[in-house]
Specification:
Chain A is of the alpha/beta class. Chain A has 12 helices and 9 strands.
Chain lengths: ~250, ~250, ~250, ~250, ~250, ~250, ~250, ~250
């Protein structure tokens, strides 16, 4: 690495590049070679060889173009979030494409083997939260995680949640997804002994204010180990959960 | 009842009052005798012979004046809410006065015997919610209710709440009091089979926004049987709980 | 009750089950047998044998499936709230189905005889609040309550409300439903001597903010005995009113 | 009127002022003489010869200075709103000064005779709203209006309000002042047949949000003839009520 | 007036009605005869013989029914606000019907002669505010007021407003209608010497928040004589302006 | 200039106009001639000879009418913002018309030569912000500015932004356009040494609240030199940037 | 573990406890022994043997009592958050007590050796955020983490942040703490390759709204791997960071 | 400039530094020498040789330390904003220190000669806005600008503002400062032909919500050329105004 800068310095040493020209070159492009450019390229390697495209607002042609360029660069697998069904239908003919319409989640490649520390539990308060949950679960699976889905275990029927106590207590990371009053995150983090990522959803009506109530509620969770992502941000939760589930020492 | 109007009509019949004078009298005071005035006076009888004074912003002299007038009118017991400790100290010399400084709740008389349908459970999420809870509990007790206090049973330590499952399932009415994320109301109403009155408290910091988060969360409770009163309104919850716990047929 | 756990202990006593196996069994399923599972099943018995399905977002097939399973389990009557007209039309061929399009409320079975303590009054501020009111009224009727509808008695024409003073003063529970400024709940609870359940509606424009103004207004009601449910939550109000109207001692 | 401009034009006609000088003079001071300056000076004449000083944040010396300058300009009476008690004490030695500490309202001069169209009714929901009400009532009185105070006639005890029905129905303008849920304005405007100026107050706690709830509630009043001023703005309401009560044709 | 109650009392006096029957009758219908019922019926007489129907959410059949009943009761003119174009088209065949599609305002009858104290000025900040302004202006005209329209005189081009200074200074009442930042109300009330009714509109984008910004801005107007109605409430402003413009002494 | 007033004064001097008539004329139209009217007409001259029409809510006929009148008055170039594609299609036949559908920006005339102090940089956080950015960029170009577009340089990939450091540090004015968390404005103003105009966009979901989060974030920028315009207000930013980029001494 | 239940079952087997008594005992205390009670007691073992007391609102006597009981139960180290200086002074005489007044953080015991996966970086935008940062950093240290503090590296002086690029890129977990516009979290997560816990602070004025702006901004971070805790919740961030930094497989 | 990097490259060329060592050195400190570090140091030169200290929350000792270090580095003049009077009193003994208590603004050095393009006008709506205005005005003066103060020219007395029309029309930049409804910014930008920086202030009560109303109002200004800074941010406005008033081409 840093071979370009090394080359430049060697050229200065050898006299093939003048000090002034080297100075100019260093100033003009300091970020490509001195560590920054790696940001984009070393991630796929560590996160399970998956890249992601945010599909909302992109045309079929734009998405196809990005996919083809990525594949040319040898990306083994590609996630597409917030992908409309219309566009997904047109992508079907592409090699290795699968689509989950609930989660509006497309995927190129095959789900990799889980290689994380433990299991990620994705829990929802109700059945209406499932699209967001599927986005989280599929994201985590595409990033090489073992995922367990516990759907419709909201606090108004506490026994449903408690009958999965073992799953909750043995989880590595839990993604707690709920709309309405968002109490699920607090209850789960009171039972669990691992990081809990809370995802408020826009499910509800009236004073749920499009997810604001669940969001505020989750931020106020008095149980330790809870943190919150944006309303309906299943992808963000799945991505962060995978990051935590792949924690390891950096030399 | 309505004896004054009856008397007036009889006077008209007897000729001791002219039609014009009767007309004037009926128009001038139609609300005292025709049903409205009962609103103020029949309540004490049905609610356990207690009257209430809202103490906030009233001086010692004002409160004392109201108390003495009420006692002259034979009110057996009088509650004073939001009563400052300074004023309470000066009221101590009055006959039969007791004061709870946490709840800022004063009382003239003796706690009446419970005569409600069942037991009112007052539960709080944390220890900081206790002042509001005591206001609710004392109000209910002064209105002739059997009250059980379950404090600090918040959802971040669910086993504490669950160890009181029998109390919750056998309650007549439950007052669920919590700040922060307010999840207690949802969890309790998922376990209980009776009306749950949720009281958000201003306990918390940051995104608790002085109780707004707990308030919104409680309004969104997806469990049935929950309704909500104003932030920190312990009196209102205790009063309503007593009303429900004394339900009976009106002939 | 608790026969399974009793059986298990007897097996331990008899030596037919080892202590280790018993320990495992207790841990694996503590909630089915120790009191929790009853939560779901004893409710229908006490609330008038009606079960409820939240219809919003469910397909015709899903609803039909749930209905058939419930009927197989001998549920005598089933309410479906927020049921779209399209789905209702397709359910018409089912036995014993009726539908109220205003309230988007479907019902399987026949309205049971009232058996509550007294009468539930459902009052609205305007004619636009009627859909929410009908949801509340039909819910209460399906749960065996005598219901009186007082529609369009808002405070801008106070005499309309006052001409029903007797109904208000003799009610067992009142559901006060209003949008705009939501003053109806305060006025009614000032006149009545029973619990008042306030339902803000999203009726209005401009600074009504989709029901928020009515919600806040109702929470601030200075009259005693008022509590509030979520915006447009007619079902929740009807369910709670029925609960209160069926209060009785638990042995 | 406009004598200066007339004089200037006559000077131009007479040749004593050149066209260029006149042009300059017209441009430099177009607002003093061409109608604008009257804005400040004809108001006292029509509004009852009272001028107003906003006392908040002004020192004793500043206020005294303004008062003395006004008196030198022959202002017969001067109102000072939001005047602190400390400053008021120091103003006592001034001639003709009176002070109402509740309303934090000072006045130089004597209350003028009422000369409006009819009577202004100032009504409050509770006793805590009285300071704002007194500011409104004193303002109206200082501007030559007959004022009737109806305090503590809130909607939670409707009979108190209804017993003043004659006063309400015969009022010329009504100022309805309330905190908490602010329902008073709606109820009064449903009973009255005159303009109702609603003043939300910051009285309340919890979800009253410093007067915001009353404000929103009043803006949503479904009764005709209601308009709203800022929270706690007693002066503005009194001033506007006087304006309306002195309506007359402008030739 | 009160002839029914007088008759009843005379019957009691004459012995044709017993005291008990009279008592019952007085209780059953206290509001029809003792002053309340007049509320609905004396308004048309004083306000220019126009009645109003709120058209939003009403079907053609409902509106037609109300109109026909009113006409049978001799209402000379009827306003219909928020009337959809579809319904208006179907009403065209009715006698004496006119419709303004911008304001969504329908009218039965002919515009009456102005008989108010002076002239009502309706001013808007921009052209997009005109529909709300027309609702206000037509309402005021139907209630017998002389109306002057000053449209698109917003503060970003102050000279347009100032060129109408005479109109503003001679107005009896001004309705100031603006969206965006709502500054028009403050500027006009700084120039005028009469009541200013401010109407925020939902015109704008981004941080105008559907009229909330204009609403808050208008409530904070530091000029005297301004009061505010709900967002887009042109009818309310026109109705109140007419009320003020018809102020007269009540005997 | 001011020739009309000069003429009037000369007529007074000459006796052809009486003092009274002159007085009336001065009062009736003081703003056309005494400085105000210039506001509308000297702007085009200084801002690059472009006039603007706000296209939202205007019909094809209205826009065409305004355009033709302006062209008759010799406006060399005309911008139309928020112009729908439907209307743009119909304007195509007009001479010299171009249209950018992304920015919904129409233009009559040819882009003038840049004549500002330096270069305006238009930067966006993401690709979804480009429509707003194009409105800003095209506005600035039509007002004779050299514009550099730096799109999709959001802070989540900081190296992309930093690789344009020279452009940022040499800019005359920077328009920073971002939705979501709006951090771009802070980061850019920390790097740049020139005025930064921040434009929040409504891009985002959940807790972006239609641009409110970006707006608040930008207002709190702790870096100096940042100011903010309304959400999505690309035109306002481009106009202000041009104003700043054409700063020069006024004699 | 579960020795009590095992003992009970053995007693049943042995006949020393009857089935009925065992049943009662299991029902009365199902949560202490069947898995729940472990929640409280196994945490210290895994999290570095530290327990925490929330000091806000607790008296010296209360805190001392809790501390002594914990120490009696062999807790090696105890954290006290939000501990007032007054109380801290009185705790000084206790054995092994240290106090950080900035963070209002007390500690009994000695900071344990770091044993996490890697290093936790605690970064702040400004110097005013340091108290919250110290609470986070001390919490993490007391839970056996290696902590690096990077204070005052806000985005308005980006070079300060970038000069620590190596620290950021090699961190195991980063806690990003900022008030005002909260952009720090986005910028850091764009540079880092690890979980970022964002802590909004109440630092700021005006439109920072007590931390709300930073909170919303952080929730909208478009960079992956960011999650958010409550405003000023340094302890929560430190606790969660430690949890993530001690991730390991559960058998 | 960049002498250190040049030196390093020359050392590489000369062989006194190895390529590896140079590479390490470049990576370790890329921001000090490659352009970033200049950010801090070239600003004083262009902005009039003044540096600024944000005084809020800093102790006397901290401020004194910073001042002395700056002076040692030859800063000719230093501004201190939000400086408490207590600290200012103790700084008096320092050489060349002046203090404005209204603006809480301290200054070391002497006000430099104006050298900007034109004059900056600082206008306020009321007298209560003056502290913010003085912070803006003094900041601009310390940065070498000619400043004209127009205080108390709010829109409720429009003639006061209009009598300064020449000042407004000839300004180079205008800072419009107002609380309450914030209309000043719109009115001024409608009159002026230069950039207007709007500063909302927290002056007001009730629905001014601590400056939020003025802030929103200013953001919605429909006049071109307006941008907004944070509530009460006088320094930010003065700094930006100076930046604009010193615009010049960068070679």
């Amino acid at each position: 690495m840093q071979t370009e800068t090394r080359k430049l310095l060697e050229d200065v040493k050898n006299g093939t590049v003048s000090v002034d020209d080297a100075l100019l070159k260093l100033k003009a492009a300091p970020f490509e070679d001195l560590g920054f450019a790696k940001i984009d390229f070393h991630r796929p390697i560590r996160q399970g060889a998956s890249e992601v495209i945010y599909g909302a607002g992109k045309t079929y042609e734009q998405i196809l173009g990005i996919v083809r360029r990525m594949r040319a660069e040898n990306e083994k697998s590609i996630m597409i979030t917030r992908l409309s069904e219309e566009t997904a239908v047109r992508l079907r003919s592409e090699d290795g494409f699968t689509y989950n319409p609930d989660a509006r989640f497309g995927f190129f490649g095959s789900i990799p083997e889980p290689d994380g520390i433990g299991r990620i539990v994705v829990a929802t308060g109700g059945t209406s939260d499932i699209p967001v949950a599927e986005e989280a679960a599929l994201t985590a699976q595409c990033l090489s995680n073992d995922v367990l889905r516990l759907y419709d275990v909201g606090v108004s029927g506490l026994h449903r949640l408690l009958s999965h106590l073992d799953d909750i207590m043995s989880a590595s990371v839990i993604i707690a997804i709920a709309g309405m009053e968002g109490a699920l995150a607090s209850v789960i983090s009171g039972l669990a002994d691992c990081p809990v990522i809370a995802v408020p959803t826009s499910v509800g009506y009236g004073a749920s204010f499009g997810g604001l109530t669940a969001l505020l509620s989750m931020l106020n969770s008095c149980a330790g180990g809870v943190s919150v992502v944006n309303i309906d941000n299943g992808f963000g939760a799945g991505y962060l959960a995978s990051m935590i589930n792949h924690m390891e020492a950096k030399s």
